[in-house]
Design goal:
Layout: E1 7-12, H1 16-26, E2 31-37, H2 41-51, E3 56-57, H3 60-64, E4 71-74, H4 81-90, E5 94-98, H5 105-118, E6 122-125, H6 132-142, E7 148-156, H7 176-192, E8 196-203, E9 215-222, E10 227-233, E11 241-248, E12 252-256, E13 259-262, H8 279-293, H9 301-319
Parallel strand pairs: 1-2, 1-4, 2-3, 4-5, 5-6, 7-10
Antiparallel strand pairs: 7-11, 8-9, 9-10, 11-12, 12-13
């Protein structure tokens, strides 16, 4: 593909994260949002009008059959991710799938196998690898100026009813382990540069209507000896989102999305770390660059697969009867 030719990307998913990707893609030179797909043609048309995209498609299959689409970004419901990822690859389209790649290890492995068969760029939306705050910490580690001893992470949302980030009713149920824990499990191994060798989890009561645990605690240890403590909740009625505390041998740092402060709450300027402060934009830039350069992207499906192996191990633990 010529570097002068626009990279034509279809965006599947007309929700909050679809809008984030649409905004990010508008800021990347040489990229055209060729089409948008949503849960219905009407909603796709509405989303396309909101985002300034000329074409709305009634189904992902329609997009995959189009010759004027080079790649697809999937910001669709989690239960669709694995099958849609494999469909994109089978149709000859590069694909970026939002986190999580799948909600089971066999499905994640099938996606990796499909990527290996096709040789196409297949990337996961593990955004924490790209947030400037986490990039700053990673550079300190790479320079030998910091060794991570512990990560303390809190992921807190209020989800006692099945609503999405926009406050709209969901047709599927989110999951603390397979979605929200995936961010931290992958980031811990990535930042320490060391595979996870030990993982434990406990969970609180299952919600009688949603059918999921609303509270969870995860402990991890890397081969380096570093440890991670992760607390997750859908019961939290207070500040929402995720905060990461890095405790190292030469300093303590707190990251919250694209912001970073020291352990003394002193702001750290991360504006020069990358071309943007928007982690989603940096993630999408990596996807575009990998396609243009014909290389494996950071957060390729193969690179993040160990995260899903750890999640599967934790799921098996959580399925065991209490006291067994």
């Amino acid at each position: 593909m010529s570097k002068q030719q626009p990279l034509r990307i279809a965006l599947a998913g007309g929700g909050a994260f679809g809008a984030k990707h649409a905004a990010a893609l508008r800021r990347i030179e040489g990229v055209e949002v060729a089409a948008v797909v949503s849960s219905s043609l009407d909603s796709a048309r509405k989303f396309a009008a909101e985002q300034g995209v000329a074409r709305a498609a009634g189904s992902l299959e329609e997009v995959l059959a189009a010759d004027d689409v080079d790649a697809v970004i999937l910001a669709t419901p989690t239960p669709l991710h694995a099958a849609q990822t494999q469909a994109c690859l089978a149709a000859g389209k590069h694909v970026q799938v939002e986190i999580p790649v799948a909600a089971s290890l066999p499905d994640a492995e099938a996606c990796v196998a499909a990527a290996e068969r096709t040789g196409l760029v297949a990337m996961a939306g593990h955004t924490r690898r790209f947030n400037p705050s986490h990039q700053w910490v990673r550079r300190r580690v790479a320079a030998g100026a910091l060794t991570i001893q512990q990560m303390d992470v809190q992921t807190y949302f209020f989800r006692r009813t099945n609503l999405n980030a926009l406050g709209h009713k969901r047709s599927w149920t989110d999951h603390l382990l397979w979605h929200h824990a995936a961010h931290t499990v992958d980031l811990f191994a990535y930042q320490t540069g060391s595979p996870i060798v030990r993982a434990n989890a406990v969970q609180g009561p299952v919600h009688p209507e949603l059918g999921i645990a609303m509270d969870m605690s995860v402990q991890l240890q890397a081969a380096s000896g570093a440890i991670c403590t992760l607390s997750l909740s859908f019961n939290n009625d207070g500040p929402l989102g995720t905060s990461f505390r890095y405790i190292g041998d030469t300093g303590t740092y707190l990251a919250r999305y694209d912001d970073l402060v020291t352990g003394e709450d002193e702001p750290i300027d991360v504006s020069g770390i990358d071309v943007s402060l928007d982690g989603i934009e940096l993630q999408d830039r990596e996807f575009v660059a990998a396609i243009r350069e014909g290389r494996e992207p950071n957060a390729s499906l193969a690179q993040v697969l160990p995260c899903y192996r750890t999640l599967a191990d934790l799921e098996r633990q959580l399925a065991e009867p209490v006291g067994a």
